[in-house]
């Protein structure tokens, strides 16, 4: 996937692109701007900053077993507004754990869906046929996003968390012909 311009339904344009090792500062700064609630929903515990080790893990990915995309504002490419990733599970190469975070001000405007569609396409291209995610039961946006990405879902409780599994959905016509999305020059 090259750079893709995605117009959100609130009029904000974002660029979605593969994450790079040089994005450590972008992720660290983005983390500082997340609300406590959004950080808690993503990391399932209080989280205020990322360690150097976490930043390496989150940005130095191989795009085979670990795929990650960042979303930045088109008018301010140094402002992180979303991250989506999947990591292949070692026990079964066809299963990957998927996770997302979207900046508070852009939640419920289509950014999670756009990131999810990019990740699902990357999964299909790399032989990943099932997604798994761990989320809070009251994180309805995460449950809805997972439902868009995976079919024949199963939900299991693990303490206070839900583990959701499902087959990666086939490419939708909407994903194949995005709303005004266009590749950006390199």
Topology:
Elements: E1 4-7, E2 13-18, H1 24-32, H2 36-43, H3 52-59, E3 66-73, E4 76-88, E5 95-102, H4 111-125, E6 130-135, H5 140-149, E7 150-158, E8 161-168, H6 173-176, E9 182-183
Parallel strand pairs: 5-6
Antiparallel strand pairs: 1-2, 1-9, 2-3, 3-4, 4-5, 6-8, 7-8
Helix pairs in contact: 4-5
Task: Summarize the structure in words.
- The protein has 186 residues and is α+β, with helices and mostly antiparallel strands.
- 29% of the residues lie in helices and 34% in strands.
- The protein has six helices and nine strands, in the order ββαααβββαβαββαβ.
- It has helices at residues 24-32, 36-43, 52-59, 111-125, 140-149, 173-176, and strands spanning 4-7, 13-18, 66-73, 76-88, 95-102, 130-135, 150-158, 161-168, 182-183.
- A nine-stranded mixed sheet has the order 7-8-6-5-4-3-2-1-9, sandwiched between helices.
- A hairpin with a 2-residue loop joins strand 3 (66-73) and strand 4 (76-88).
- Helix 4 packs parallel to helix 5.
- The chain starts with a strand and ends with a strand.
- 31% of the residues are buried.
Query: What sort of overall outline do the alpha carbons produce when their principal axes are compared?
Result: globular
Tell me what portion of residues adopts beta-strand conformation. Answer: 25-35%
Low-confidence stretches: 174-186
The side-by-side strand order for the widest beta sheet comes to: 7-8-6-5-4-3-2-1-9
- What Rg do the Cα atoms give? 15 Å
Distance between the termini: 12 Å
Specify the structural class: alpha+beta
Strand count, sense and closure of the main sheet? 9 strands, mixed
